[in-house]
Amino acid sequence: MADVRKRFEIIISSALKESMSDVYITGGHPMVSRKSGVIQFHAASNWTHKDVDDLARALLNPRQLEDLKHRKSVDFAISLSGARLRINTFTTERGLSFAVRVLPGQIPTIEALNLHPSLHDIAKMTSGLVLICGATGSGKTTTIASIINDINNYRKAHIVMLENPIEYRFYS
Question: Using alpha carbons only, what angle is made at residue 40 by residues 24 and 42, rounded to the nearest 5 degrees?
Answer without folding.
Answer: 75
